Amino acid sequence: MPSSTVENYLKAILHLQGEGRGSTTVGEISRELEVTPGTVTIMMRHLKERGLVAYEPRRGLSLKPRGVTEAMKVVRRHRLIETFLVEVMGLDWSEVHEEAEILEHVISDRLLDRINEMLGEPTHDPHGDPIPDRNGVVAKDLAMPLLEAAAGRYRVVRVSDEDSALLEWLNEKGVRIGEEFEVSDSDRAAGVLELSRRGGKRVQLGLQVAGQVFVESVA
Ligand SMILES: [Zn+2]
What we know:
By secondary structure, the protein is of the alpha+beta class. The protein folds into 3 domains: about 5-65, Orthogonal Bundle (Arc Repressor Mutant, subunit A), CATH 1.10.10; about 80-140, Arc Repressor Mutant, subunit A (Orthogonal Bundle); about 145-215, Roll (SH3 type barrels). The chain is about 40% helix and about 15% strand. β1 (about 55) and β2 (about 60-65) form a beta hairpin. The chain is globular and about 60 Å long. About 30% of the residues are buried. Bound molecules: zinc ion (ZN). The site of zinc ion (ZN) has 5 residues, from α4 and α5.
């Protein structure tokens, strides 16, 4: 089994079990990775033998501590590579996710350490995702989806890195990490959320986009 395949499974489980319950299912993994449930089941037996997942057929499955550490290493590589591609190579934040999906499986620890040093040991990637440290420990993310934000003042702290069209659209609207906006909830019933900047320029977001932009409240 190529190690990149194992790594993608570990990363997918980490992502899925992170959303609430602390466990996931064969069905969810099969949808996430677009493979058949049978293929997932075979892989889960393999990962169980390697001590990376806790898995009983027809019950929830989750990463064991070793599995979490391995998955976090891949996440660290992914996020450092994205940061390198933007900060050093000058790529746009909408262009780097797909590249990082490939490079995260092939880059050596030595090169990664060098990249980390060169970047000044960054804590977050260009999309605002926290970068796990060498031991796979990651800062807790307290951001909420813009979708759930009541009227008030917020700072953009993170956006989903997977949808390049979304990132290009945010470029056009000038929505960036660290920017502050006032949210008014007046149009929410119509499926639109409105942000206004201090300068007065307004941006309207569809609710689906607002689910992929994460903010924290500004006191
Ligand atoms: Zn990414």
